[in-house]
Design a protein that fits this description.
With 627 residues, the protein is of the alpha/beta class. Helices cover 42% and strands 13% of the residues.
């Protein structure tokens, strides 16, 4: 009920202590001056989609990067905004709740009041539905008092959010006009920020004065690109899950008779599974990206896990822990194709109990092979983005059943060879009886108190949103880079959401329906199988599998050892794209200063030679990336 939003919470002693913590702002956001430096116009990461994006977003494509600087900065091309009239800003939570979301509200509120105490922040109640219905709550210090540094989205709530249809976009436009909003801040992941970009474009075309700003908040960690290093909530989710996983590892090592199959929330990408593996060192992780790249079937996965179980049994180890991302089920080729057929019939209005009679022969055979509980879960209506309800499909139980059946056959002399069970001379599995215990970790973590990192990061992003609005920018996402460093060295800025978009031109079979494929969107970033994080995972895979080097990071820490620890993947990756762009521009400025009319012939020749070499190399690299 709307009356429940924003009511004071009853806090534990720890929650009270956390509510008193005040994140530190980087120097570029401190004080009452907004100083911004604009870079060059942005372009699409994939040039092949640039024309399509430019056509779809004529008012907001090609805008420059923005860097926020400290008030004392001497940057020649920067602008100082000294006047800060009272403004009215709306904020809406879109997408699933993610730890740290409340601090975005707090950071934006503090920035608004710091620059003009008469400014107003309105929170929309109940997510996008509250935006359409113009249901608001004015955010004040009293309202925020028991929500600072706290988990959940219960300050404002959320719904099954999207702002996509013409009716929804028009309702949002009407709400912003009626409430006379100067800015609308949308807090969410890839889908929500794609919607934010479309809203910004529509508002610009309609000459609506409301500026739209996106904030990267999603526990999945899949809103990553050259501008966005991390998402609010990912750090917390991985730390909480890693402790749970580590506890299970210790239990497995103690009892020495159970295999734990643990499915992790995180949607289609496997970022959460990778990070939790690097933090807790379970015996095995199966990534959706690996399965998709190698086109591994259910039988392939079953054999892969059974071979691992058998290898461990030969060392008298009859226990283990296996992690699975929730998006794994959609990455298995034959299951994905089956889901496409099912979703196609559901969209046509075929009832779930009749769909099995409508399937093609091969899909029907697979459907009948699967356990009854999985069949029921595959028949659930798809999400708004046409994906399966991944959190409801118990992939861990499916694989545990298949592995148990295969181990039992190996025990008595049968083995899965070329997708058929064949009798061998004697059983190849010599271990103890296989016992599986299944878990799904997701809801337990996403309502957690946010980590210190997520508290700081979200608060800084909230502050940055005000700077973006003060600079008059529309269709931008708040960004913070150099996150692996202490917060006083973070670089704050903003990037056009259209610069993060790509266009994927491929079909998805007869069940494509109303998918957004072929349209410019912010696509989820998957695990890079050529990246440094994956390389680190592969380097340790054999050791993790055979040596039981379980690691327990312990519960979330807010002070002392561990409080300032950051995600392993964040520290391993070679990031700070925005900082490097700025550094490159500084070098180019130096070249312009040195090489100008009147310089010596030798200086001019050296500059031409160097620039020729650089452009040749970059041309080759760019052409290779397009192949």
């Amino acid at each position: 009920m709307d009356s429940d939003y924003g009511v004071p919470r009853e806090l534990s002693d720890l929650q009270k202590n956390r509510s008193l913590y005040k994140p530190e702002l980087p120097p570029c956001l401190q004080g009452t001056t907004v100083r911004v430096e604009f870079g060059d116009a942005t372009a699409a990461a994939d040039p092949s989609g640039a024309n399509a994006i430019a056509r779809s977003f004529p008012h907001t494509y090609g805008q420059p990067l923005a860097h926020f600087l400290r008030a004392t900065s001497k940057a020649a091309n920067s602008q100082t905004i000294d006047e800060h009239p009272a403004v009215k800003v709306g904020l809406v939570f879109c997408g699933r709740q993610s730890p740290g979301g409340h601090n975005v509200v707090w950071g934006l509120h503090d920035a608004l009041k710091t620059h003009n105490p008469k400014s107003t922040l309105l929170g929309f109640l109940g997510g996008s539905e509250g935006l359409f219905a113009q249901k608001t709550l004015e955010i004040t210090d009293d309202v925020l008092a028991t929500y600072k540094n706290q988990g959940g989205y219960d300050l404002l709530g959320r719904t099954k959010d999207q702002i996509r249809t013409t009716e929804q976009v028009n309702s949002a436009l009407a709400a912003c006009k009626a409430l006379k909003l100067d800015g609308l801040v949308i807090v969410g992941g890839v889908t929500s920020n794609t919607d934010a970009a479309q809203l910004a474009e529509t508002f610009a075309e309609a000459k609506c004065s409301t500026k739209v700003v996106g904030v990267p908040v999603t526990l999945n960690g899949d809103l990553k690109n050259q501008f966005v290093e991390a998402n609010v909530g990912f750090d917390t989710i991985c730390k909480v899950n890693s402790q749970l996983i580590s506890n299970v590892c210790t239990d497995a090592l103690s009892a020495e008779k159970y295999y734990y199959f643990i499915r992790l929330m995180g949607r289609k990408a496997s970022h959460v599974a990778v990070e939790c593996t690097l933090q807790s060192h379970p015996n095995m992780v199966i990534l959706a990206e690996e399965v998709a790249a190698s086109k591994l079937t259910l039988f392939d996965l079953t054999k892969q896990i059974c071979d691992a179980v058998q290898a461990r049994a030969e060392q008298d180890k009859n226990h283990g822990v296996i992690l699975l991302p929730e998006g794994l089920i959609e990455s298995i080729p034959e299951v994905y194709a089956l889901l496409q057929e099912i979703h196609h019939h559901l969209r046509l209005g075929v009832s779930a109990d009749k769909i099995s009679t409508k399937l093609s022969p091969w899909a029907s055979a697979l459907f009948e092979f699967l356990p009854l509980f999985i069949r029921k879960q595959l028949l659930l209506h798809p999400e708004s983005d046409d994906s399966a309800q991944l959190s409801q499909i118990e992939t861990e139980k499916l694989l545990a059943e298949l592995v148990e059946a295969e181990i039992n056959k190996r025990l008595v002399g049968y083995e899965l060879i070329h997708n058929e069970y064949m009798r061998t001379k004697e059983g190849t599995y010599k271990g103890k009886k296989f016992n599986a215990i299944c878990h799904f970790f997701g809801y337990q973590a996403r309502g957690s108190l946010p980590s210190k990192f997520d508290c700081d990061y979200a608060y800084v992003l909230g502050h940055s949103c005000y700077h973006i609005l003060a600079a008059g920018l529309n269709g931008y996402m708040a960004t913070v880079t150099n996150l692996k460093s202490p917060s006083n060295k973070w670089r704050c800025g903003a990037a056009p959401i259209t610069a993060m978009m790509t266009v994927k031109h491929y079909g998805r079979g007869s069940g494509s329906g109303s998918t957004t494929l072929g349209k410019p969107v912010v696509h989820p970033a998957t695990v890079d199988l050529r990246g440094k994080v994956y390389e680190l995972l592969r380097q340790n895979a054999t050791r993790f599998l055979m040596d039981d080097v379980y690691r327990n990071p312990g519960p979330l820490q807010f002070d002392g050892p561990g409080a300032d620890s950051k995600a392993v993947s964040l520290c391993v990756e070679d990031l700070d794209y925005m900082g490097r762009i700025k550094e490159l521009n500084e070098y180019l400025d130096k070249v312009r200063t040195i090489v100008k009319p009147g310089c010596s012939q030798d200086v001019l020749k050296a500059a031409l030679s160097a620039m020729s070499s650089v452009t040749d190399i970059l041309s080759v690299m760019t052409s290779q990336s397009l192949e």
